[in-house]
């Protein structure tokens, strides 16, 4: 599988990567999926301390035991669980990050993290303190690089302008092109894009037409426009899964498109789709159907 560099970090990640949030809690089932991913050439695995109250990191750590040198490992921080309270609180403070990373390392069964991402962000954050935490961890060798996972352009721009972040994770797909407005900004700061939501909750797979009956809209698409667009894409290709992946990877700023899977079969579907190509004429025909929306909130202008 081809690899691309994360920013200018010297870290090369597979074009298709595994988003681990959907992994089953059963450690053997999770290991089977991760083993299949590594066998196919996937080397980038993304999780977060938020997922399943940390259980997801433990499943990933168990599955990767003995194979740490084969992979690039990413996790996220910023959502803090308070004992005795429901849910999580947002906490991007240096003190919390410096403690949370220890717990993530323990669950993941490793002594370093390749990419540590801020899992969100607001304009009210003390961003200098947050960045100082990441820079300190980097100097100590606990993390190799860091980035941010957010869909807020204002938050992303401020974080990139004040840091040496190499990656931005954003929801991006044929049905959500809002990030495109800020591709040049991200590139100018020397960062790469990691895309999530590539398959648009299954709308951009062979099950897409059926899934239309289960949704009220997607992104900036209201239901009728969504139905029209997804139906039209399906009419142009019998391999919409491949088209969805190749659409993201056609963007030079994209280092990897992060695909989730809760079963080995789901993962193999994406791997097989990535191995195929889509002819240029069909690609252009599909692209002409797609609307380019913009974010309504958190804008830079």
UniProtKB/TrEMBL annotation:
InterPro entries (alphabetical): AKR (IPR020471), AKR2_Oxidoreductase (IPR053135), NAD(P)_OxRdtase_dom_sf (IPR036812), NADP_OxRdtase_dom (IPR023210)
E.C. code: 1.1.1.-
Enzyme class name: oxidoreductase
A Pfam family matched in the record: Aldo_ket_red
Keywords noted in UniProt: Oxidoreductase
Domain NADP-dependent oxidoreductase stretches: 16-290
The protein's name in its UniProt record: Aldo/keto reductase
